[in-house]
């Protein structure tokens, strides 16, 4: 198969994919913050959490659920700031993945990536990187 990328472009495509995959895995993992609560180890990310407290209405007390899972709804994410972080980071990861997959397709399809498309993809990748690093919102 013919490629529309130079050697530098192929390296860019490979590194873009590795960085996008790493960002997506980091986004989905619930290990952003680690700590303890009610003498149990807890961790959470923007939309996933492990070992979290839940109110048990039958016993009228708070118990720890020792499993990992997503929040029941978007509104269940603890604060507005974490909701914004979830959206912005998810958008950044999506943009990084879009550019990386397009670049990988450019390795296999001739005339897919021109100089202009490469520049636009670089700009989109820059924006995605800013969003996924938290810099896009001035955090």
From TrEMBL:
Subcellular location: Membrane
Transmembrane segments: 87-109
Record bears the keyword Membrane: yes
Residues annotated as signal peptide: 1-20
Topology with respect to the bilayer: Multi-pass membrane protein
Key words, A-Z: Membrane, Signal, Transmembrane, Transmembrane helix
Gene Ontology CC, one term: membrane
Coiled coil (residue ranges): none
InterPro entries cross-referenced by the UniProt entry: LHFPL (IPR019372)
Keyword Membrane: yes
Protein's name in the database: LHPL6 protein
Organism: Dasyornis broadbenti (rufous bristle-bird)
Gene that this polypeptide is encoded by: Lhfpl6
């Amino acid at each position: 198969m013919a490629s529309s990328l130079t050697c530098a472009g192929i390296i860019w495509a490979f590194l873009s994919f590795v960085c996008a995959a790493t960002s997506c895995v980091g986004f989905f993992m619930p290990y952003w913050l680690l700590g303890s609560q009610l003498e149990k180890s807890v961790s959470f990310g923007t939309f996933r959490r492990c070992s979290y407290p839940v109110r048990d209405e039958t016993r009228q007390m708070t118990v720890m659920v020792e499993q990992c899972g997503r929040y029941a709804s978007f509104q269940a994410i603890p604060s507005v700031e974490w909701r914004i972080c979830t959206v912005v980071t998810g958008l950044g990861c999506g943009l990084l993945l879009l550019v990386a997959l397009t670049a990988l397709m450019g390795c296999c399809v001739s005339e897919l990536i021109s100089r202009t498309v490469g520049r636009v993809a670089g700009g989109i990748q820059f924006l995605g990187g800013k969003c996924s690093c938290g810099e896009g919102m001035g955090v």
